[in-house]
Predict the 3D structure of the following.
Amino acid sequence: MSNDVVISTRIRLARNLKDFPFPCKLNSQGREKVIEKVRDAVKKSNSPVASDFSFIRMSELTSSQSVSLVEKRLVSPEFISDTDGRALLISKDECFSIMINEEDHIRLQVITKGLSLEQAYDTADKLDTLLDENLDFAFDEKLGYLTQCPTNLGTGMRASVMLHLPALEKSRAINRIAGNLSKLGLTIRGAHGEGTEPKGALYQLSNQVTLGISEKAAIENLKNITEQLIAQENQARERLCASIDIQDAISRSLGILRSALVISHDEALKLLSNVRLGIVSKQITDVSSETIDKLMLAVEPATLTVALNKNLSAHDRDIERAKLIRAEL
């Protein structure tokens, strides 16, 4: 099954308002005008989804709250690096979000479970259309949607899938695969995108080319390559999980997670990754992969701090993380 490998799908659209400079050239008053225009556009859309959005001024969040949004992949690390004049519209289920005044005026994104590129794009396209009805986007007949970074010109779309690739990682095939993907206009990175190291065998695969290609073609290309990676990962898992040493590592991982009193973030992700492999290979039958996916987000440092609503030292956080995992497993 594809969802044994693909955890989630994300579609992100970059848009800018025609009559405003890019955010990097806007003063505080200009940024505030952009925020109000985007917020009003959502309110005026007469769509049921409009009432589902919460409005957040980034400058009003604590550091932990901001970092937690990054950990949950709802905003970019760059977005929280300077919170002045930035705002977020986010749905209650956190599947839809709109970053206002990041690198571009609008970064609209949709996150769905499993491999669901067409569904995610269809939802993002509908949200984009709702905004377009009340906003004048910067668009050129030859270049497409205009963006601050030239690499986003054209469709302004980044499509990505979050992959769990423990077998390909253990067989050291990732570097070879990454080199081949770059020739196909795709890139594979750590879970949080550019510049991040993969942890828990989680990788983000996304398109790089946005100019001279339609959204449909980009999605089809990404889907085809994702399905090839799924096949390669499943073949590697069959070989890997036949090993008694791997089976032992999986059993030990579950035992540690169910009994540990203190556990670090990196160790938790490594052991959860092993357990997830054991679940999809049918070695572990009393825990679901959905539970593991939920825990992989919940054990993140800032997200754990926000959930507990108290300041914690690193050691205390490791204690609380272990307590959370024991309760879930």
